[in-house]
Design goal:
Layout: E1 12-18, H1 22-35, E2 38-44, H2 47-55, E3 64-68, H3 76-86, E4 94-99, H4 104-110, E5 116-121, H5 126-142
Parallel strand pairs: 1-2, 1-3, 3-4, 4-5
Length: 143
């Protein structure tokens, strides 16, 4: 992944973060705020709650989803399948798997979903945010 490309043109209006670790979410919110590229963060500890948000027509749309792979109740892959089934394959312009998993099968499995654009290893850093905004730029020019 080339993170030293041109600065992104697109701001991330609404970023959804799905991670069962509150401390990770708190740290990521700080990184996201420091980036100055994200207007709003909507965080969920449970994937099922994030799915409810996406299914509610009154919920504002999200530009990007940061999705943890390993979570209780509903893991990241179960969320991807449920969101694809309930909302459609384009339930978000960009989904990024954010994980500690080093299992190549997890990467292969994630990339089978049209919405998944990246598979990043934790922790989230400032360079990741710039890269994610660039993914939105690429998505906007390809549609």
């Amino acid at each position: 992944m080339n993170m030293r490309a041109q600065p992104p043109k697109t701001r991330i209006k609404r970023l959804m973060m799905i991670d069962d670790n509150e401390i990770d979410q708190m740290m990521y919110r700080r990184v996201i705020k420091r980036s100055g590229m994200v207007d709003e963060v909507v965080g969920f500890l449970w994937a099922s709650e994030a799915l409810e948000y996406l299914m509610d027509p009154a919920s504002p749309p999200v530009d990007l989803i940061l999705l943890d792979v390993n979570m209780p109740r509903m893991d990241g892959f179960e969320f991807l399948q449920a969101a694809s089934d309930a909302v459609g394959p384009d339930f978000a312009p960009v989904v990024v798997m954010l994980t500690t998993s080093l299992n190549p099968r997890d990467y292969d499995r994630a990339m089978k979903y049209d919405a998944v654009r990246e598979f990043l290893h934790k922790p989230l850093c400032l360079e990741h945010i710039t890269h994610l905004a660039t993914l939105l730029d690429e998505r906007a020019t390809s549609t």
